[in-house]
From TrEMBL:
Residues 103-287 form the Xylose isomerase-like TIM barrel domain. SUPFAM superfamilies: Xylose isomerase-like. Keywords: Isomerase, Manganese, Metal-binding. InterPro entries: L-rhamnose_isomerase, Xyl_isomerase-like_sf, Xyl_isomerase-like_TIM-brl. Coiled coil: none annotated. GO terms for molecular function: isomerase activity; metal ion binding. This is Sugar isomerase. It comes from Hymenobacter crusticola.
Length: 426
């Protein structure tokens, strides 16, 4: 959709300005003994998975305003992610959602994935909605249901998801449960937990040994009195009970206001159980907005823990799966995803330039102000030229959103797919 030559020409027109800014940051970091090229290399290597359900508008239960040109099939979703990846070189994988993305022609999909230089990272199961032709309802829960047959149906759905994932080379199953209760007394808490643990164990047993199961927690919604996995502690306990390839997934919007998410991240790294991330932005709850949009400092503190954990020999945590989980009603979803990735990379770059030796020393000496100033110093450094350079070095656009607009991509998509095409999603 955007020819390489066009990206090259657009970059050419910005190059002079870019080079000036890049030289400045490179020099600035050099004076702090930091090699800018090394930071750029790490940004180039950082990849964030795009969820298939974020490619169309989502929004709220009060209304949905389609952007037009939304992908109508898994093939078109892959094309959209391919486009993002072409623009920023940082979105090389796609998270599938079953049953919204059931793969049909495997050979053709594999071919398309190769062309677009993409892989499938994780498969998300869905036991939060009843599917048509499904014998039993999840109205009163799936893996925790009091009825054995309903639990079996939900277990089988997760096993089917693993099957679909295997066909396309995925190695991760993400389980988010909408199971919970709305009224006091409705559920027996301990039994509900145990049934969930047992169901997860059955799924785990059917999972190949080189797969990872990610267990996501959420404090409320769709249920408002209790959720069976409301917090990281419950996820962690379930992972411990399930097996070594079960890991906790942290969704940034799944915390009560003012929760110290960076500390949760540090705890999970310490225990070697941090499996994945769902990046999004939250002001109140599971808002699924652009990550880093309203709380950039919080995102920085989270990345600071991730980088610190990666550098620490004592941390024995498997590779973390970075994924976006967003849903938009007012933004063009593709523009949002470019913004989200840009926020993630910019924040990552800031965490990479934290003066760790000084920070450790300040912590050791209980120098509160020095420690905080060390973090502020990195956070307030403008690292955007490093991210732009990373885009350029991976063949992308210096300014992905500007390139997307210059090419009138949304208009092209509307022409091809129609104004009313609606993607399957939340
Ligand atoms: C729901 O609140 C969770 O964030 C899920 O991770 C996700 O949005 C859903 O599973 C999409 O399939
Ligand atoms: Zn999520
Ligand atoms: Zn969510």
């Amino acid at each position: 959709m955007i020819p390489d030559q066009r990206i090259h020409d657009l970059n050419q027109s910005l190059l002079d300005n870019h080079q000036f800014q890049l030289n400045y940051v490179t020099d600035l970091l050099g004076r702090r003994q930091i090699d800018a090229q090394d930071v750029i290399r790490q940004i180039v290597d950082f990849q964030v998975a795009i969820p298939s359900w974020a490619l169309g508008t989502g929004g709220t239960r009060f209304g949905r305003y389609p952007a037009g040109g939304e992908p109508r099939s898994l093939e078109e979703k892959i094309e959209d992610v391919g486009l993002l990846h072409k623009l920023n070189g940082s979105s090389n994988s796609i998270s599938l959602h079953i049953p919204w993305d059931i793969p049909q022609d495997i050979a053709a999909l594999e071919q398309l994935l190769r062309e677009q230089k993409l892989v499938i990272d994780s498969v998300n199961s869905n036991t939060f909605q009843d599917q048509k032709d499904q014998p039993y309802s999840y109205k009163f829960g799936s893996l925790l249901n009091t009825e054995e047959a309903i639990r079996q149906q939900a277990i089988q759905h997760n096993i089917d998801c693993i099957g679909y994932g295997k066909q396309l080379g995925a190695k991760t199953l993400t389980v988010w449960l909408a199971d919970g209760s709305n009224f006091p007394g409705q559920q027996h808490f301990r039994q509900a937990y145990q049934r969930t643990a047992d169901s997860l164990a059955s799924i785990y047993e059917a999972m190949p040994s080189d797969w990872t199961m990610l267990i996501e927690y959420k404090p409320y919604e769709p249920h408002f009195y209790s959720m069976v996995i409301p917090d990281w502690g419950t996820s962690y306990a379930l992972c411990q009970a399930t097996g070594k390839n079960a890991q906790v997934l942290v969704d940034l919007g799944h915390h009560l206001p003012n929760t110290n998410i960076e500390q949760i991240v540090a705890r999970l790294l310490h225990f070697g159980r941090l499996g994945g991330f769902h990046f999004n932005g939250s002001s109140y709850g599971d808002d699924d907005l652009t990550t880093g949009s309203s709380k950039p400092f919080q995102l920085f503190l989270i990345f600071n823990e991730l980088v610190d954990g990666k550098l620490d020999q004592l941390v024995n945590n498997p590779a973390v799966a970075y994924m976006i989980d967003a849903s938009h009603n007012t933004k063009d979803p593709l523009e949002d995803l470019l913004q989200s990735v840009d926020n993630i990379l910019t924040t990552y770059a800031k965490a990479l330039i934290v003066d760790r030796a000084t920070l450790r020393e300040a912590q050791q000496n209980n120098d509160v102000v020095k420690a905080e100033e060390t973090l502020r110093d990195a956070f307030l450094t403008d690292v955007r030229p490093l991210v732009a350079e990373a885009y350029r070095q991976s063949g992308g656009a210096l300014q992905p959103i500007a390139a997307y607009r210059a090419e009138r991509v949304r208009e092209q998509l509307i022409q091809r797919r129609g104004k009313l095409s609606v993607s399957t999603g939340l």
